[in-house]
Amino acid sequence: MITLKVLHTTTYRFNEHVHLLPHRLMLRPRESRELRLISSNVTVTPHAALTWAHDVFGNAIATATFQMTASNLVIASVAELQLDAVAWPVFDIAVSAMSYPFRYSDDDWTDLGALALPQFSDTAGVLRSWAQMFVRGSRTDTLSLLKDLSVGVSEAVRYQSREDEGTQTPVETLNRGWGSCRDFAMLFTEAARMLGFGARIVSGYLYNPEQQSVGSSNAGSTHAWAEVFVPGAGWITFDPTNRSLGGLNLIPVAVARDIRQTIPVSGSFVGSIGAFAGMSVEVLVTS
């Protein structure tokens, strides 16, 4: 078990005083069997009223409402937590799901819903054909298949940080041969769905003390990965960017069907054309 502190600061700069509309904040880490949240505090400058709720996935969402104009907006989150993920997890997969293909129970299939359905167009069958390459026979070990798929993403796609917003479609990522961690995660998730698995996107932070993991140039950064639901084992974590299995050094904040649903800070303002001067994001993860 390791105790970590996560500092996440987002700063917006304007060339004039603007009227800030409500902002949606997704910054509180998700508690689980492997993550115990000791404290979490979000501060907003200028002052904002914060109201909290949970979205359909159970993520903690804060809405910041402002009463004054401002030329700068600073949103700072400080979280302290204990992480208890192991380096080499063992998964107790149900006998019925040890070999692929398998059938989810009727209840599981109903509850997985859209998480088990492809979300992007693949009219030419590019992604489906690519995903099928990892199925080694009529009966394939399920966990080995998913491991191969995760490694296959990093073999097919070169990591490249992207500062622009949004995510490439999985087919775009395959065709271009490069992408960021969120593109890797979306490609893996969508390929798993093509094979009939229930899968979801996870966003949060990567703790990288040795600076050996891909996706962070410092000891910590924001990061995206994926989880696949396998009967018996439940949600299994895959980080295709780093070819890793399990939640070691990963701090989840949000799970969702699509990466667009996991943006840490989103909102708008009212001002003149050219009022926006820029933004910066600083993330620090320390033990």
TrEMBL record:
Write the protein's name: Transglutaminase-like putative cysteine protease
A Gene Ontology molecular function term for this protein is: peptidase activity
Transglutaminase-like domain mapped to chain residues = 173-242
Where does this protein come from, organism-wise?
A: Bradyrhizobium huanghuaihaiense
Keyword annotations of the record: Hydrolase, Protease
**PANTHER family (alphabetical):** BLR5614 PROTEIN-RELATED, SLL1233 PROTEIN
Under InterPro entries, the record lists:
Bac_transglu_N (IPR013589), Papain-like_cys_pep_sf (IPR038765), Transglutaminase-like (IPR002931)
**Pfam name, any one:** Bact_transglu_N
Gene Ontology terms describing biological process? proteolysis
Please verify whether the record's keywords include Protease. Answer: yes
